[in-house]
What we know:
The chain is α+β, with helices and mostly antiparallel strands. The chain is built from three helices and eleven strands; from the N terminus they run αβββαββββββββα.
Amino acid sequence: MRIQNVLSSVAVASALLIGVAANATPVFQVTVWSAQTPNSNINSANQQALPTNPIVSAGNEIATFTFTGLPNWDIQSQSSNTLANFIGSGPGAVSNFNCLIANCGSTVLSTSGFSSVTLFDLSFNPNHWATGTIWHDDGVSLYDNGGSTLADQILNSAYPTVAIPTPFSTVGTHGPYNLWYLEANGAPSRLTVQASDVPEPGTMALLATGLLGLGLAVGRRRRA
């Protein structure tokens, strides 16, 4: 293998890796539903961060928006536990905000006794794979292929809980993805996504081949 060809392979693979990093910022298309849920408990279907949650209906949809970046949304006080405060409390950019009811930003995310809830569907289609951790209070689930069946489910931590970290990986899947988050039983409310990029296997194989060939070429030159 000529050293020029090896260097070319390394350069191409490096460029691909740089491209992955450069395009790593995800863009989420977010839909929000909110509903009163009297006489519910932690096991009720309307208290689950799942696409099958019965509050998912046109009558309960309150807002849609685009969010660029990784959510870092955190509300500790019930007095500030509103939609506007929640999505405005972390870094990132909210755009194309569409309020479907009057004063939707002032909607309280949830109240104690499981008597009201708010459900978020964050849909995204990244051009890279990722692993990471989702901190949530309350539940989250993640689905591949824009689906809603068990076959599409990547993770299920859908039940209301105190703030906990849930690891995830989209390696081996292809998207598009839906991250479901539910806020139930009053503040605190938290959705924090921490993720690292994982280059696709073809990119890594190309880089490995280039580096191996470069090592062999350098070794031959030294022996010569």
